[in-house]
Specification:
about 290 residues; alpha+beta; Pseudouridine synthase; Archaeosine Trna-guanine Transglycosylase, Chain: A, domain 4; 5-stranded mixed β-sheet
């Protein structure tokens, strides 16, 4: 079937485990997820099946939100509490005002070094595969952005935050960097992803719910590009554009659009430049209407 599943991933499963489970439930090989979630973490994992997999990149581009807890005074090789302790440090006395000031300093664009325990590939090998062999390789810092970083709770040795960030952000690394700015070390002790683009925690379904009612738990592929303006085409325009013909539509502003057919059916994604629409991703081809 074609559709998007807003999965409530449980802790203890890898994102790959989730895909394997749903591949069996949906009986399809054409399936993928919109952004890896750590095995010990829980929360929103969008899964795309059938023709909807063509829209995976849009889920990957969407902003993400998390609730994360960090424990100060020790650092682990994995960046979370599943790993082995590699460093311990005393924890200085931290005030609420001081912690909020440090959090504020992390808001905005910045460069972040991917952790060794991650799915980033270097020379065809995933970093976590190398890390499990006891190897550490040179990595390049990547641009990320923190849009929001709110303090929810703190104790003398822990703090919990709500994070809104760009794609590619490693919350484990963010926590380690915040701990360093506080004059100590730290590790992530809890992570819940509450949003990926248009997909929210409150609307997520467990794997058991999806297995019991796949159709009822699926969202339309159009949900993946809810942020794009919609452009409704007539029959001839729809047929031309979905079959690869760049087509003029007067009065259309430059930009990317979700393309709809005459009956409101979602056809794909197109970009307008100089009032000409070019197809980017087509999910359904429209037949040229007969001349009247």
């Amino acid at each position: 079937m074609d559709g998007v599943f807003n999965v409530l991933k449980p802790p203890g499963m890898t994102s790959h485990d989730v895909i394997g489970f749903l591949r069996r439930v949906l009986q399809t090989k054409k399936i993928g997820h919109g952004g890896t979630l750590d095995p010990d973490a829980a929360g929103v994992l969008p899964v795309f099946a059938g023709t909807a997999t063509r829209l995976l990149e849009f889920a990957m581009e969407g902003r993400k939100q998390y609730i994360a807890e960090f424990t100060l005074g020790e650092q682990r090789d994995t960046g979370d509490d599943s790993g082995s302790v590699v460093k311990t440090m005393p924890v200085p006395e931290i005030t609420e005002a001081g912690l909020k000031a440090v959090l504020q300093s992390f808001i905005g664009p910045q460069m972040q070094l991917p952790p060794m325990y991650s799915a980033v590939k270097i020379n065809g090998k995933k970093l976590y595969q190398l890390a499990r062999q006891g190897l550490e390789v040179e990595r390049q810092a990547r641009p990320i952005e923190i849009y929001r970083l709110d303090l929810l709770n703190f104790t003398p040795t822990t703090f919990t935050v709500a994070v809104e960030c760009s794609k590619g952000t490693y919350i484990r690394v963010l926590g380690e960097d915040i701990a360093a700015a506080l004059g100590t070390c730290g590790t992530m002790s809890f992570l819940l992803r509450t949003q990926v683009g248009a997909y929210l925690l409150n609307d997520a379904h467990t794997l058991q719910e999806i297995a019991a009612d796949p159709v009822g738990c699926s969202a339309e592929p159009l949900s993946a590009v809810a942020h794009l303006p919609k452009l409704t085409l007539n029959g001839r325009q729809a047929a031309r554009i979905t079959n690869g013909v760049r087509t003029t539509i007067r009065g259309t502003a430059a930009g990317q659009y979700a393309l709809l057919g005459p009956e409101g059916e979602f056809l794909g994604i197109g970009t307008c430049s100089e009032e000409k629409i070019k197809a980017d991703k087509i999910l359904a081809h429209y037949k040229m209407p007969e001349e009247e």
